[in-house]
Specification:
Elements: E1 2-6, H1 7-18, E2 32-37, E3 43-49, E4 53-60, E5 62-65, E6 67-72, H2 73-82, E7 87-91, E8 98-102, E9 105-109, E10 129-132, H3 133-141, E11 158-163, E12 167-173, E13 177-184, E14 207-212, H4 213-224, E15 230-235, E16 239-244, E17 247-252, E18 271-276, H5 277-288, E19 297-303, E20 306-313, E21 317-324, E22 332-337, H6 338-347, E23 352-357, E24 364-368, E25 375-380
Antiparallel strand pairs: 1-5, 1-7, 2-3, 2-6, 3-4, 4-17, 7-8, 8-9, 10-15, 11-12, 11-14, 12-13, 13-25, 15-16, 16-17, 18-23, 19-20, 19-22, 20-21, 23-24, 24-25
Helix pairs in contact: 1-2, 3-4, 5-6
């Protein structure tokens, strides 16, 4: 193989591939990135996988001699990142080691056999749906932090993706809070439906699939590039495929039953308080500094004209701050996990947010007062301290 590629172009793709490659694995080839090229081609193909999530991408290059090889993904990324914005020459002579050179820099990197690199599944060739990139990116940003990190509850280690011909939703929960983001999924111009191959034949019964936590993080990174307004989506027997511009994210599905989130959404929350988002965020951050490090509990003492937010820890001390609000209901005291509240406030961009509740033990709901993007509901369970 012999090719020339621009440092900035290669670096962009290698940066995205870093999230796929696992730092700790028992299979050495999974630490490598696969590079493939054809004689006389104007691009190279790159791929990385951890057997659960994979990423394919393409990069403009001048290919002198085609071939395929694998290189340590992190070491190659470090070398390319350290080089100036210039052409990089990658060659593989007969002895097997790979030369990576640019200007006066030259290096030889050990490789692993191409045959050891695991095969990655291919999509069927016809996208089952074409999704709008902007609302999808917003939905991911507003739900991914609510996914649990507890491996024992593997069915919660992902977000439920609901897709119908006219809408899409993401639901994530860790058992103590639930984030639900929904958006219309308008079809591309010239098409009558966004779903094109029976992914959701019954509009009343949207297709359901659990997207793994890592898949959401990598999808957010791809969408964050902002290079594509549409995302091709296909669901295979065991894999999901997301086509974002010149890149394709491949993910195994989680074969499990997601909790019935509809039952968690409260219906009888008759008390509402409107907060200035930045004011509430700064107050909770300050008060939480003296909260118990394990529970992170902050107390909302709600009364006429104001909400006293406080925390206390026997080992550290206590803190209190009052936020002025319009409220004329009965006095109520509710405790929340401060980090859960801050996660919500950091995910929304509305100037004002609304807290609706029923009493001190029932699910409360936080939501932005207005939103130009997706509809967003955040259910949070009160703490008993």
């Amino acid at each position: 193989m012999e090719l020339n590629v621009r440092q900035t172009e290669l670096l962009k793709e290698l940066q995205l591939l870093q999230g796929i490659v696992e730092r700790k694995n028992t299979i050495p080839i999974l630490a490598n990135v696969l590079i493939e090229a054809e004689d006389g081609s104007s691009e190279i193909r790159l791929a990385a996988t951890d057997l659960e999530v994979g990423l394919r991408s393409r990069c403009a290059a001048a290919v002198v001699a085609g071939g395929s090889l694998t290189l340590p993904a992190r070491k190659l990324h470090e070398i390319v990142r350290a080089l100036p914005d210039t052409d990089i020459r990658i060659t593989q002579p007969a002895d097997g080691a790979v030369n990576v050179a640019a200007e006066r820099f030259s290096s030889r990197i050990q490789t692993l056999p191409r045959e050891d690199f695991p095969s990655m599944p291919d999509a069927g060739g016809t996208a089952s749906a074409t999704l709008s990139a902007a609302p999808l990116a917003e939905m991911v940003a507003k739900t991914q932090f609510a996914i649990t990190g507890e491996d024992t509850r593997f069915f919660l280690n992902g977000a439920l993706f609901l897709l119908s011909a006219s809408s899409m939703s993401l639901v994530a929960t860790d058992g103590h809070r639930l984030a639900l983001a929904s958006a219309a999924s308008p079809p591309p111009e010239g098409e009558s439906e966004g779903v094109t191959s029976g992914e959701a034949a019954d509009p009343e019964e949207p297709a359901r699939v659990i997207l793994p936590r890592k898949t959401l993080w990598e999808l957010a990174r791809l969408l964050g590039e902002g290079e594509s307004k549409e995302v091709g989506y296909e669901r295979g027997a065991n894999h999901l495929f997301f086509d974002v511009g010149r890149r394709q994210l491949i993910s195994r599905t989680i074969d499990a039953q997601f909790p019935a989130h509809e039952r968690v959404l409260p219906q009888g929350n008759d008390k509402c308080i409107k907060f200035d988002r930045e004011r509430l965020s700064s107050t909770v951050k300050r008060v939480a500094l003296l909260s118990n490090e394990r529970s992170r509990a902050v107390k909302f003492q709600i009364g006429a004209g104001g909400v006293e937010i406080s925390s206390s820890s026997p080992e550290v001390g206590e803190a209190t701050e009052v936020v002025a609000v319009d409220y004329e209901g009965a006095e109520t005291v509710i405790c929340f996990n401060a980090q859960y509240v801050l996660d919500f406030l950091g995910a929304v961009d509305s100037d004002s947010v609304v807290l609706s509740f029923k009493d001190e033990v029932s699910q409360a709901v936080l939501s932005p007062q207005s939103s130009a993007g997706c509809d967003y509901t955040y259910v949070i369970m009160p703490m008993r301290v």
